[in-house]
Specification:
Chain A: This is Malonate decarboxylase acyl carrier protein. The structure holds 2 protein chains of 2 kinds. Chain A is of the alpha/beta class. Chain A has 2 helices and 6 strands; from the N terminus they run βββββαβα. In chain B, helix 3 packs parallel to helix 4 and helix 4 runs parallel beside helix 5. Classes of the chains: A alpha/beta, B alpha/beta.
């Protein structure tokens, strides 16, 4: 198990919160809630050791060129593939919009 | 109705996560979660053992209404650590049952629904999980003296270990075909009895003994329904209005049936087990 922290610049205010996914095999749990103004904070607790570079690349690719909201994201990962991570994060952001 | 239409109208309950299950059973718009994931009441023991925790520790507690009646639902997420009962998740269920007892004492009739999807105690939390299960069992026994406590085993994890005893203590038990109910899980029995006697990989064999259909036919469950949200809710409401079978008080009868097998008990098949449990009712 490994805990990783990432930070990205945010421009929009964070609002609402959402929870998607589950800490089951090949899946992950994503909690999104309003965070500190001007930044998007992500904490990843993952069962896969040595995966820091992969998470870094994945989040860079996901967030580059987007106007990000100032939210705090908590991820509990149980071996999700990059595709599943992307789907869950998109789902989490979309569910905030539904509130 | 064509097969395709039927398939599209069907809403599977088994495929829902624990939170969605609780929401689907309660009256529309009445679901209110207590100690939700954003409260982050997580297992302090799993990370110390290098295991990723879940924000709600795999247990969802919700207050709401069931056909207008006050109800508390405890739903176990079978996907997280096999639905195992740890200190936190177990205390959430026990606490919910105890608060429901208090409400009943204060003149607010509150029933409970337990969505059981669990392999039993969380081995990483050992005695703390076992203590929590004991508290859950005590909570069920006390609450069922006031209002019905209904256990639902939908599958596909099933309900095993100490939590199978909790299931047996409920006022009513509802199962689907996907459900399984047993004290020891198949792998444990195989390990102890040998693969010749009990092959945990033989799914039809396993379900023929511990599956929902068999447990219902043996009188160990009160309702057997198809995996469908509406059907399960309908059945649940029906059970709410019925007197309890009070199985837990009939231990003498069950012991007498089991004693009939004698010391040199033969290897039974599913039909023989049904015959044994059905007794004179056959």
């Amino acid at each position: 198990m490994q805990t990783l922290n990432f930070q990205f610049p945010a421009v929009e205010p964070g609002r609402g919160r959402s929870l998607v996914g589950c800490v089951s095999s090949g899946d992950l749990e994503v909690l999104i809630e309003p965070g500190t103004a001007g930044r998007l904070d992500i904490q990843v607790v993952t069962s896969v050791n040595g995966s820091e570079a992969r998470w870094e690349q994945l989040l860079q690719r996901l967030f580059s060129g987007r106007a990000l909201p100032a939210v705090k994201i908590d991820i509990h990962d149980f071996g999700a593939t990059p595709g599943v991570v992307r789907l869950r994060l998109e789902q989490g952001f979309e569910e905030i919009g539904h509130d | 109705m064509t097969d395709t239409e039927r398939l599209l109208r069907h809403r599977s309950f088994v495929e829902l996560g624990a939170r969605q299950r609780a929401r689907a059973l309660l009256d529309n718009g009445t679901f209110r979660e207590l100690l939700g994931p954003f409260d982050r009441l997580m297992s302090p023991w799993l990370p110390r053992q290098g295991i990723v925790p879940q924000a709600d520790d795999g247990v969802i507690i919700a207050k709401g209404k069931l056909a207008g009646r006050a109800c508390v639902v405890a739903a176990i997420e079978g996907g997280f650590q096999g639905g195992s009962m740890g200190e936190v998740g177990g205390a959430k269920i026990a606490g919910a049952l105890e608060l429901a007892v208090e409400d009943n004492r204060n003149g607010i009739p509150t029933c409970a629904v337990l969505l059981l999807e669990t392999g039993g105690v969380r081995l990483q939390e050992a005695n703390l999980g076992l203590a929590a299960i004991a508290e859950i069992q005590a909570g069920i026994v006390e609450l069922r003296g006031h209002q019905p406590v209904i256990g639902v085993i939908a599958g596909s994890v099933g309900c095993f270990g100490g939590m199978s005893i909790a299931a047996g203590l409920c006022s009513h038990l509802l199962v689907t075909r996907e459900a399984r109910l047993g004290l020891n899980g198949p792998q444990v029995i195989e390990q102890e009895a040998g693969i010749e006697e009990y092959n945990a990989g033989d799914r039809p064999f396993i379900w023929s003994f511990s599956g929902g259909e068999q447990r219902h036919a043996c009188g160990l469950a009160d309702a057997y329904v198809a995996d469908d949200v509406e059907r399960i809710r309908e059945q649940l409401l029906q059970l709410l209005g019925q007197p309890s079978a009070n199985r837990a008080r009939q231990h003498a009868w069950y012991l007498q049936r089991l004693a009939q097998l004698g010391a040199e008990a033969p290897q039974l098949d599913a039909a023989a087990v049904r015959a044994l449990y059905q007794g004179d009712a056959q």
